Structure formats: structure tokens, C-alpha cells
Amino acid sequence: MSQFAVGLALALLTAAVLREVRDGKIPNALTLPGALLGVGLGWYEGALEAHVFRLAIGLGMGLVVYRLDAVGAGCAKLLASVGAVLGPRRALLIGLAFWLWIALAWAVAWLVARRRLPRAQPREIAVAENQPTWQMPTSPAIAVGTLMVMGVDLWLKSRPAH
Questions:
Q1: If pLDDT is split at 50, 70 and 90, which confidence band does 34 have?
Q2: Number of domains the chain is built from
Q3: Across 8-22, 42-56, 102-116, 145-159, which has the greatest mean pLDDT?
Q4: Non-local CB neighbours of 62 within 8 Å, separated by 6+ positions
Q5: For residue 52, how far is the Cα from the chain centroid?
Q6: HSE (side-chain half, CA atoms, 13 Å) at 160
Q7: Of 32, 31, 33, 44, nearest to 4 (Cα)?
Q8: Does the structure show a pLDDT above 70 at 118?
Q9: What is the DSSP secondary-structure string of the chain?
Q10: Shortest CA distance to 32 belongs to which of 15, 47, 18, 48?
Q11: Phi-psi map region of 147: left, alpha, beta (phi>0 left; psi -120 to 50 alpha)
Q12: pLDDT band at 120 (very low <50, low <70, confident <90, very high)
């Protein structure tokens, strides 16, 4: 993992978290260039197929939780972009860490809502009745998962060989 790839991934994640927290969405204008830069990095390194495979792994991991209606499409595309930049093994681990953080966040949100709103209405009813709804930003979970994987990777590389 090159320093450029790490810097690109961190810049992409920082911009995505800031935009999602501020606007509630991760724009395609952020995720598409990230994915293209990841694939371009693969072309530059002579490993184009590997980077396209990384993109596919990240997108697959993101689409699973998107189809479960746990995250928006922006987060699925962000996971694909980060996967394209950082690699297939890291994309898989980041996806698993992301799933863990999303599950934990949804469990906490459910417990809080259950405690505060004993008869909370489903989102569909709230939308039909023009009541405000809130969607939890999920890009921070991708960022935390990425930092966890990168930290473990760095720690494993710094250990002396036996």
C-alpha cells in the first residue's frame, strides 16, 4: 500500500464524512473520481485487473447493506472507491468492519428509539404522514473501519519477523 493510496483514501473518506454529515448525502462527484483514481493507480502500478477486482469487492460489500436498506447508495459507492484504492484484502476487511459498525450503530439507535419512543412508527408511515425522518450518516463507519484495518496492517508490518 503506497503512501499515495493511503493519502487518497484518507482524503476521500474525510470529504465523504464531512459532506454526508453536512448534507445527508455522499455525491457521485466524490465517489466516481475516487473509484477512477483507484483504478488509475492500478494502471500506473501495472496491476489494473487487481484494482478493478478491488473496486468490485468494495461495491459488492456495499451493495449487500444497501439492498438491506441499511445504508444509502453513496456509502456503497464510497466503499467501492476505498476498495479500489486500498486493495482486495483490505476492501474485504474494511467491508466487514463497516458491517460491524453499522450493526452496532443500528442496535444503539434502536435501543435509544425504543426507550424514548415506545411506539415508534416505521419510516414509511412517517413519510406518508409528512413527519420528519432522520437517516444516520454511515460514512463515519466506513472511515472507522478503514482506520482500523490500516492500523492493524501497520501494526503487523512493524512487528519483527520471527
A1: confident
A2: 1
A3: 8-22
A4: 71, 75, 76, 77, 78, 79, 80, 95, 98
A5: 17
A6: 1
A7: 44
A8: no
A9: --HHHHHHHHHHHHHHHHHHHHHSS--HHHHHHHHHHHHHHHHHHT-HHHHHHHHHHHHHHHHHHHHTTSS-HHHHHHHHHHHHHH-HHHHHHHHHHHHHHHHHHHHHHHHHHHHH-TTPPPHHHHHHTT--------HHHHHHHHHHHHHHHHHHHHSPP-
A10: 15
A11: alpha
A12: very low
Query: Does the pLDDT of residue 21 top 80, yes or no?
Result: yes
Phi-psi region of 53 (alpha: psi -120 to 50; beta: other; left: phi over 0): alpha
**What residues make up the domain containing 95?**
3-158
Contact at 8 Å (CB) between 121 and 131? yes
